[in-house]
Amino acid sequence: MTESSEHPEPDAGPPARELADVPAVEVITRAAVMLMSAAAEKLGLSADDPDDSPHRDLDEARRLITALAGLVTASAEYLGPHAGPVRDGLKSLQLAFREGSAAPDEPGKGPGEKYTGPVW
């Protein structure tokens, strides 16, 4: 018996793909989902009461939402059917930021609004 048959590798799931084999739309969409998830955490949206979330950090959320807005704006033409849901997610985060701010930004001055336009 060889060493590898005595100690089989644990099932690691599907084989990893080479980055070169991943379509651009998938890379962009995954990056957008990661930014959305991180921004939601920084807004405290995973907690029952966002104001009491230990992860709430509006300054960090602003940065993530602005990065997401830039990515979505720059890549919207490539996202095909994913563009609408990604834009909707971005808008929801922008609105949640506005609602969660003690002193909300003026329309057009909120996170990412220089790329998306004012969000109400």
TrEMBL record:
<dbReference type="Pfam" id="PF08899">
    <property type="entry name" value="DUF1844"/>
</dbReference>
<dbReference type="InterPro" id="IPR014995">
    <property type="entry name" value="DUF1844"/>
</dbReference>
<feature type="region of interest" description="Disordered">
    <location>
        <begin position="97"/>
        <end position="120"/>
    </location>
</feature>
<feature type="compositionally biased region" description="Basic and acidic residues">
    <location>
        <begin position="1"/>
        <end position="10"/>
    </location>
</feature>
<protein>
    <recommendedName>
        <fullName>Recombinase RecA</fullName>
    </recommendedName>
</protein>
<feature type="region of interest" description="Disordered">
    <location>
        <begin position="1"/>
        <end position="20"/>
    </location>
</feature>
